[in-house]
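Hello Y.,

Per our agreement to keep a running log of every chain we model this quarter, I'm adding this entry. I've kept the format consistent with earlier entries: sequence first, then predicted structure.
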Amino acid sequence: MSRSLIAICATALLVSTGAFAGTSANSANDAGPIASAKISMDAAVSAAEKHVQGKAVRAEYEKQKGGGWAYDVEVKAGAKVFDVKVDAEKGTVLASTEDAADSDDDGDKAD
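Predicted structure for the entry above:
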């Protein structure tokens, strides 16, 4: 298993176990909602990797504009990088767009 995939899985585990630490209805992060996702981050990463035939380098669980939740997986395929949105309820790819490689997307608006 690659180091990046191990890091993604470790992050998913920390986020899912962190969901039990806070029960505030007005949470400042996404740790609470990930516990209610019907598919795991690992399954979302696998779907994204298969969709673009690449390897995941980052994955997040994000609130969408419509209020629902989805996984945002950044996948490197050759020299290209793709942002792949995966439905947290069904595990299907919602969108895939080519993106410039970046170190992270902090500060971006809800997708």
